[in-house]
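ZP: hey, is the uridine-5'-diphosphate-glucuronic acid complex queued? I don't see it on the tracker
AM: it wasn't, my bad. submitting now with these inputs:
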Amino acid sequence: MSNLAVSIIGAGFVGLTTAVVFAHKGIKTICVEIDKDRLNILKGRKAPFYEPDLDSMLKDCIDNNTISFTDDIDYAINNSNITFICVGTPQRDDGSIDLKYVRSAAISIGKALIDKSGYHLIVIKSTVTPGTNHMVKKVIEEYSNKRFGKDFGIISNPEFLREGSAIYDTLNPNFLLIGADNDRDAEILEELYTLLYKPNIPKIIKVNTYTAELVKYAINSFLATKISFINTIANICQRLPSVDVNTVASIIGLDPRIGPLFLKAGPGYGGSCLPKDVNALINFSKALGYDPILFKTVQEVNRLQKDAVLGLVNKLIENIEGKTIAVLGLAFKKDSDDIRESVSIKIIKDLLDKGCRVKVHDPMAIENAKKVFKDSIIYCKDKYECISDSDCCIILTEWDEYKELEPEHFKSMKSPIVIDARRVLDHEKFIDKVRFAAVGLGYKELLDYKIPSVSVNAIIEDKGKVLLVKRRKEPFKGYWSLPGGYVEYGESVEEALRREVKEEVGIDIEIDRLLNVYSDPFRHIAKHTIAIVYKASIVNGKISNNEEISDAKFFSKEEIPEILAFDHKKMIEDYLKV
Ligand code: UGA
């Protein structure tokens, strides 16, 4: 069977990686690429994109004469017995899949088969919606005048490799999926894979073509769902005291029903596959008459996750207009120069819209980013130059070199503010040294709320009068006081204030601003206790100057009772002076 020769149509991530892996194992491989620029790069012994190990393996294969590149599809078909279709399947404006490159590959194969003798197997590796195999079959029959099952066969054999580890994934697949309408075709491909992987042949699963085509979408949509799920949990964690999504993920991942992978919270998924494939499945499903609301939500969560990252920026910088933002990472994931659907690119666009000056660094993707942003952003040669003199630094790709950053490296910033959207930094080291926020990391300041050490008071005004409440509990029972109370575990000060006023007075308030912070260590038991005074107004208020509800009442300056439950006189006087 060593006379098996393979041709591969399309030298993209899947096509070129597959070709190089076949050729590296000594299988004669002809790679067809119709893009002239790309073909020239390949003939010049280089891969047209970055992928670990690809360049060196490619050079070896060229030296060993096991791989060749051409734009002549007739030559490729006539000099091989198995052809893999690995062309792109982009999305149309409405999100549905565009199969035009698959169709034109099928037409070319059909025409090339006219004069070919002997059985030829066509293998569809491109990601295609269920039913495409049958479409390709019809097109080839039409253009070749040959018969499926007699002169040629077609298999659906989706690929599950990831960018950044494409070679590794191709050499070590979890399983191989063969979707075939007859046993003969499945056996030929099985033979090729046996040759490729022996002695460690992966599990081979044989199904019909529709199943194989759907499995590819099911896997990518499930992975996208897992990411949107963990990002949702991350957004909840951020609102809790000292809860870290990484800890949550590492625990839930121990449950074999869940598993540990694809639970890394971040800025949202990007790349050329997950966003496109979820979209294609939604459209495909709708066309079948079923609206897959789960995937629509997965997509929406992912769309909004970049705003969650920008929310962290806004939390630490009051007004970002005119500020210099350092963005570390442009690629949609590490070990790749691919910026397609990269969240980093979307965030940079938002920052530019908001009037920021943006400096960027990426070890591999700068050239691709230049095609998008031209001279509207500043490209830095290393991470230190990027960080230097900026107001805020956002880490958006998990490159290993960013993991080496220490708090000292951010000293060159105007006033260090670091947002770790990829969780590459050890937050324990950073939290006290720089202003720091990270996706899925609970809010540090809330730690102080473990003991009810922050007391809050509201000055609610109505026509120059302030609202006081009569205390119900000892030791201040019967005395007037400003409404307020203590912050409970996990609450923000504002939430506590709203809750307390609602409980005490039965009205909803809107907090306008912080007036002052008073601290009286003699009166309060806990060392760090402070009184925070807010100016608040009533929302749809039931209470006015003329009314009393329960034990709350408005007082003018002169009317304020001589004895108050707490010594708020200074606060009230300060307020009424304003
Ligand atoms: C994805 C699938 O993982 C592959 O199995 C599939 O073969 C490929 O699509 C394809 O259809 O060709 P890929 O897009 O290369 O591979 O990259 P992934 O590793 O899946 O990452 C996709 C995005 O999700 C990246 O932006 C990554 O940063 C993000 N991600 C991934 C997370 O945010 N969290 C995670 O835990 C994992």
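AM: back. The chain is about 35% helix and 20% strand.
ZP: great, adding it to the tracker
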